[in-house]
């Protein structure tokens, strides 16, 4: 096990009395030799941003003596010391006044430590600039500016949007100082790190000189543990880990080191910030090799305040259907106001780039993506959960917020697994009916896509290995569960709505009005509608109105102009309103019921569709048309069809 007794390469966990580290100084070298000298890097919490900043601080302050055994020390690069302004903004910032006060305290401390004496500047921004200029003048060397957790004053206060925006304005003024000509001339290097870009982009031009390296493939491995680093750092601990997991029955007695490595990677691997470089979560990996237990580490160590606030307010916006498929988000242009779930989850570490899915789309292997043509914008991003730890925890959080389970909660996973293995359709149906009945009105799924996502949330929350929308030769497979003994459950989902949209309702009642109301009354209604909206602006209406016509003929002529002036939905609405006001509730109700029946397939049709879909999935798997599924035999396949009827009060399971 590699150890080092200095903190410059510490990941933050002490193991066996030494600091475990991965040599990241190759990336430091690339930063220092770049044509640029001002950088911004976003990474999730506990991924090593502070480690990177402290490494640079140590390098600039003490030179290269302590780095001689690391990559940069062996590279021949001449390390020059220089004065450093290091700030961490992860401090008390519950108001802009407190933020400014704490910034001034930190800046005064830097000035005092450097022996600079009195510096003018009553605000943090002014003091910041004068401090940099005086350091340069006093030492004769340009200054390195290192700012860690720059966005904490904003993200920590997202529950109070007014405070967050006020703090963002303080940061705007503060960072704008770096662009003042005399200040910029005193700086040799700048690195700003944080979790998000929200505060940065809300600064307008305040920090737009910083080069964002967050998604540059060259720097993809600058934080976290790469696959090669994992194999180098933990090779001598794998045998101990294997024995521990076998004793806990997480692995069978016949399991090998290869099996263990795959299991660890399933739990903690999977991050991608561009270029396909795989990154393992350093916090979870280090904790695993202390306890040798596969459990939640990173996800339970805290959650950014802005994400918590958004989840609590509108958990329904975070169901996987919103982000696991194809999304055209420009992550580099996210604003503080109007935050979207996808960028928030991505910057917070709950989603990662899905390069493989993006490649599938660009290679034309899928003809359509989310209803779009195969001509797909190459600037889009695809997203996925990085690993099992994140997927299980995040879906469990959504499960609790949306379904509000009773005391049994997620402990029903074993019961559901047994029901699936026993082909017990009644129990499976009861399970889903029980949970969907608790969903509040505004969170109920109103389409098949959302229904699909919520079912996936339930399975994932209970620890099932679930895969969604696997691409194949003839379409996508809705869901696959992998159970013990390599048994796979093939799930085809159907959702039947129980209510009409406003336009559908109006269309049905318009047909009723045409059958029940006289032609003269219908003409009168349309004549009134067009005259109210266009009677003073449309020449043809004005000409008809001036003619000496009897009322029925006038109304007829004006009504004939309605299709030219009004959308069909507006015409339907006119007739629908009249039907509701003049016809009995029973007649109106019967018309709406018949319309819903016409739009909704019968239970027999649903049963047939479910069985056909399951059989097609089975055939494709046997023919290896689903590349994601590399094994599986007919006897190990359960075909599960789930259809929601009415207001999700009946869900049925169909088995082979």
Radius of gyration: 31 Å
Q: Structural class of the secondary elements?
A: alpha/beta
Across the major sheet, the strand order is 4-5-6-3-7
First-residue to last-residue Cα separation? 52 Å
Low-confidence stretches: 1-19, 365-376, 627-634
Roughly what is the average pLDDT, rounded to an integer?
81
The CATH architecture designation of the largest domain is 3-Layer(aba) Sandwich
User: What helical percentage do the residues reach?
Assistant: 40-55%
CATH class of the largest domain: Alpha Beta
Strand content: 5-15%
Note the main sheet: 5 strands, parallel
**Number of discrete helical segments:** 28
CATH topology-level name of the largest domain: Rossmann fold
Q: How many strand elements?
A: 17
Shape: flat
Number of separate structural domains: 4
